[in-house]
Amino acid sequence: MPATAGFSQLGLHPMILKAVEAEGYTTPTPIQAQTIPIGMTGRDLLGIAQTGTGKTAAFALPILHRMKSGEQGDLRTGRRPRALILAPTRELAAQIGESFATYGKHLALRHAVIFGGVGQNPQVNALKAGVDVLVATPGRLIDLMDQGFVHLDRVSIFVLDEADRMLDMGFIKPIQRIAAKVPKDRQTMLFSATMPSEIQHLANQLLRDPAKVAVTPVATTVEKITQSLIHVPKAHKVALLVHLLKDPGMERVVAFTKMKHGADRVMKRLRAHGIKSEAIHGNKGQNQRIRALEAFREGRVRVLVATDIAARGLDIDGITHVVNVDLPMEAEAYVHRIGRTARAGASGAAISFCDGEERGLLRDIEKLTRQQIPVQPLPTDLSLAEPPATAAVQGESAQQPATGGGEGRGGRGKRGGRGRSRGESSARGGERGGQAGKRGGQRSEKQGEPARERRPEPRGDRSSARSHGAPHASPKGHQRDAAAFESGHRPGAQGSAAPHGATNGGANETARPAPGRGWNRPLRGRR
Asked: Residue 8's CB: how many other CB atoms inside 10 A?
């Protein structure tokens, strides 16, 4: 049997079969075996399949076949796209573009990928050069349509990939607007991992007598994924992840978090423990995300920490484990998350952490997947100790338990924190001011001037305080200085002050004005 006998029986163009053979594919997946023949006929199609089942090739191969076998169209510069594929995220759009480049490398066809988050000039230049296949995210596509750079009047094949994800991201209205610009006499293919009522309604609007292909039940998980659950307090989740990563079998791991800042926090903690990791989320620039994915794909990074932006379209071979540091807010996202492993028939493992506040999310997941996730006990040898680098990131609490500042002369904190040295802990300014003060002290010692304590000084107006070398303080710092000054001065005195260490008893106490208007005003001391 030839190496590509499975695909050759589908009737694909020889140049496409040659590209498929070069990639080492021999037998089509179930979604490909059912979808490709229908797509080659030009009939509308509704495909229901999980991520990781080969949906991209299921529509890319028949599109390339129809374009190569039919009319080539106008090969001059400026030709307009004849196939339009919409994807919800930049990563998925980029990977679809790579698939068209791979399968169509022996064909005289051009493709372009456009998405937001990067400059539009290279994308505009590609469109001006002429394209046959256009892969796009809805937002950037509409933007370029409004600017007059994209025209869809010659599109004959329209594909919506991950339609349910686009529904979650609020792209239904943009999709309807784009579909209105595409000729009605077209082939439309819609693919989705789940089929909520909104997607069914959209399919009824866009498809005409479609063939329906469903290779797996809706919202089921891949059988070759070994799932497990660990109940753990929220504060110990990252420590548990670090503990699990001691297993050398976790070679390539994707860890999911709910929030963007949570992904960055997990990444920093892992790096502090010497674990190579990168983070991708919506706040990262496109170039940063591409570099992180390349490093992960090439094996230079062991752990990729991501939000649900990467739950779909992350097609990287060899992902051994998926770890849900946080359970997803939507139960459907659990299926897409763990689908990053066990790709193309391989096996994998998915480990989920659940704290007390996530019990409801766990019930939703088990209800949707119709199975109970096996529970593993929390490791008894779990270490909660933080590495020194992590402690430094969190304010050097281990090395400087209550100083709230440094010893350096001239040390000044940012955003209102003074470097204080009398043991007065400042919850807000002391952390940043202490680190800056410590640096200032180190500079002073290097210059041969010993670091010394700075006693809080009574503060007059701001200009005179600065002229006497007092560092600029925030309003809260100003009030603290006033309180310190009050302990050694009589607030009611006119131009005089009690000596340090004097008590407030006797005549001094009778001279204190009653609290009232202006009592909390900053005090002025005698110079």
From this structure: 15
Q: Is 517 exposed, middle or buried (0-12, 13-18, 19+ CB in 10 A)?
A: exposed
Determine the Cα–Cα distance for residues 345 and 315; give it in Å rounded to an integer: 13
C-alpha to C-alpha distance for 5 and 21, rounded to whole angstroms: 10
CA distance 59 to 45: 10
For 191, the 3-state DSSP assignment is strand
User: Mean pLDDT throughout 253-273?
Assistant: 94
- Quick check: pTM over 0.85? no
Q: Identify the residue whose tokens are 């390539």.
A: 252
In DSSP terms, which residues pair with 418 in a beta bridge?
412
Q: Edge-to-edge, what's the strand order for the sheet holding 187-192?
A: 111-114, 133-136, 83-86, 157-160, 187-192, 45-48, 211-214
Cα 215 from Cα 55, distance rounded (Å): 11
Any alpha helices (H) in 23-69, and if so which ranges? 30-41, 55-69
- 145: exposed, middle or buried (Cβ count in 10 Å: 0-12, 13-18, 19+): middle
- How far apart are alpha carbons 196 and 163 in whole angstroms? 10
Q: Name the amino acid, one letter, at 189.
A: M
Q: Spell out where 177-291 has E strands.
A: 187-192, 211-214, 225-231, 253-256, 277-280
Whole-number Å distance between alpha carbons of 514 and 490 = 13
Rounded-to-integer distance, Cα 87 and Cα 161, Å: 5
How far lies 505's CA from each of 32, 498, 514, 526, in Å? 92, 12, 15, 22
**Pairing verdict, β 187-192 and 157-160:** parallel
> Which residue would you say has higher pLDDT here, 342 or 425?
342
CA distance 48 to 34: 11
Taking the C-alpha atoms of residue 386 and residue 399, their distance in angstroms, rounded to an integer, is 12
**pLDDT 10s digits, 2-46:** 333 488 888 899 999 999 988 888 888 888 999 999 999 999 999
Task: Examine the pLDDT at 422 and tell me if it is beyond 50.
Answer: no
Residues in Cβ contact with 470 at an 8 Å cutoff, skipping those fewer than 6 apart: 457, 459
Closest CA to 303 of 327, 286, 280: 280
- Asked if 341 and 274 touch (Cβ cutoff 8 Å), the reply is no
Gap between the Cα atoms of 421 and 78, Å rounded:
70
Task: Give the up-direction half-sphere exposure of residue 212: CA atoms within 13 A in the CB hemisphere.
Answer: 8
CA 258 from centroid of its chain's CA atoms:
9
